[in-house]
Amino acid sequence: MPERLQALVRDIPDYPHPGITFRDITPLLRDRAGLALAAELMVNPFRNAGIQVVVGAESRGFIFGTLLARALNAGFVPIRKPGKLPAETEARDYDLEYGSDTLEIHSDAITPGQRVLLVDDLIATGGTMKASCELVDALGGELAGISVLIELSSLGGTAVLAPHQVHSVLTY
Known about the structure:
The chain has six helices and nine strands; from the N terminus they run H-E-E-H-H-E-H-E-E-E-E-H-E-H-E. With 172 residues, it is of the alpha/beta class. The strands form three sheets. A five-stranded parallel beta sheet has the order 4-3-7-8-9, with helices on both faces.
């Protein structure tokens, strides 16, 4: 089944920088069977994990996060770039594959002790997900796992997240 999904991921060479191969998921997103299969494979390991809230980082984490939240009968919480959330926030700076950035979450988005699943489309260096883990921890959430569609294994992102469980559907 992952082969079907891999066929829907388009490789864009030298984007956004020379020497980088960008894994474009937009063909997968427009394919209704591919999107449904991706969500199913991402959520399955967490069906009986007592997840109460799914957290997804801007922007493609919103797509998969809401799909997985629906499948788990859980709530959804967005993590956004600075200045996008209207109420009081908690923030974390982090390093990207190509620079640095900041993420924010509403300070009241997670109740202490809530079981949380973190979701994103891709894990590369792990910077975004590590900052997301720190935000969940800061609010007292219990991180039950991390689910991503694509893992770029050569960049070591899952190692940065240890001891958290990371489930990847596709690995490049």
